[in-house]
Amino acid sequence: MVGIRTVRRGQRAVAVTEVVAIVYCERQAVFTWRLGDRPTAVQAGCREEGERRHAEFARAAHDPASARPCWIASHVFGLQAPQTRVLRDWRDGVLVRYSIGRAVIAVYDRSAPRVLGLLCRSPALTRAVRGVLAWLVHRIERERAP
Questions:
Q1: Is the pLDDT assigned to residue 66 strictly greater than 60?
Q2: Using the 8-state DSSP alphabet, how is residue 97 labeled?
């Protein structure tokens, strides 16, 4: 059985990404080791976007108003988008009051991760779902109007 070795004083731990980089491209690993990590403008932009989305998700996770997130609406419209809030409010204010609504919520909670996986792989499907949800949001807002 292979155990985990501890790093001795004065030695630097090696991250898995460094090992993969060596296997993937030895020359790139040497340049990075000598010159440091110098991401391109595109890479830096992607990293900033990822960090921004992560921070947004973390903020929403601690927001009591979004204790039960709408996974698909959050993916399609954005975590704090007005459409997502409308759908969340409709779920929490209308659907939850009826047994059929609670059943729909339960099915959604079980199936949303799989549907989200499909949406992440298919921009065309994401656009179609966005259209359906936009229609639903429009109907909900129209019913709320005095």
A1: no
A2: G
